[in-house]
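Notebook entry, structure prediction.
Reason for the run: the old model in the group folder had no record of what sequence produced it. Starting over properly, with the input documented here first.
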Amino acid sequence: MPKKKKVAFICVHNSCRSQIAEALGKHLAADVFESYSAGTETKPKINQDAVRIMKILYGIDMEQTQYSKLIGEIPEPDFAISMGCNVECPFIGKPFDENWGLEDPTGKPDSEFEKIIAEIEKRVLELKERLRG
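New structure, fully documented this time:
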């Protein structure tokens, strides 16, 4: 059986979109790829709105299985995805394979989080199909 690819979801702070993508990757695509998330900076806690909404939608408690990490704390990825940095994406030692260009829902209503989470789910499932080969 071939080794699973390592996919890294990268944001600046590794507290919201990249954490959601890591959780959904583990939840929906663990049979195809390993999911990691990281940033060039960290926050003391994962975005609490993201944590709350992911619990409601998927029953996933991100605080039990994830924490805000720097890029150097994860394995070197086979596939690196920028979640959308708006200003400048962090340098991770290699070019990004994709930029998903997603808006940060931090500080916005739950409906904005739900839209971003739905888009991340769709893209994780598409990535799963592509990487399944």
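Summary: The helical segments are 17-29, 48-58, 62-65, 110-132.
The old model has been moved to the deprecated folder.
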